[in-house]
Description:
The structure holds two protein chains of two kinds. Chain A is mainly beta. Chain A is built from no helices and eleven strands. Chain A is globular and about 40 Å long. In chain B, the strands form three sheets. In chain B, strands 2, 5, 6, 10, 11 and 12 form a six-stranded mixed sheet that branches. In chain B, strand 7 and strand 8 form a beta hairpin. The interface between A and B is medium-sized, with 23 and 22 residues.
Amino acid sequence: KAGVTQTPRYLIKTRGQQVTLSCSPISGHRSVSWYQQTPGQGLQFLFEYFSETQRNKGNFPGRFSGRQFSNSRSEMNVSTLELGDSALYLCASSLGTKNTEAFFGQGTRLTVV
Amino acid sequence: AQSVTQPDIHITVSEGASLELRCNYSYGATPYLFWYVQSPGQGLQLLLKYFSGDTLVQGIKGFEAEFKRSQSSFNLRKPSVHWSDAAEYFCAPRVADKLIFGTGTRLQVFP
């Protein structure tokens, strides 16, 4: 069974640009969550999608957005990039029901210069 | 305030020694509890989980954790550490359908 796949693995962008990251969950999983990991703030929850609907949202500015497609694949978008957006972005997939665990992808390392 | 605490930022042990990583949480009800491990530059790997029932749970790689309701703790243990266990360990309660991560404990293993 394939795991969670995130693309690309590495990305370098310039301040002010926008970026789109992709996540393909484990087959059969309907929930996709996104987390940002930085040395200063640690692991922080961005948002969660379940069956194409945003079910939960963290405390991030509106520049951070996401969506989920009918095949459960998800994308997150960051507009008007700032230096502080440099981070490892992790995607997690789960069945989305109560007693289930989340499985993480390898992450996308975003560097903003 | 709701929070999760991993008091030990960095732990160093000798290979073969026992290990205990501490985790305390502060939430109204008992949340679902997870431990994840992260190697440098990698994603998070699930070690074990607690939903309900038996308070001692077994995970992968020989790890176990004990849930203690009275202490609001979910400490991770391993009887004999291997050099390949060197990594960062995160405790994460799930609250309102999102994982709340602790600050992590970096484990260093000496031969």
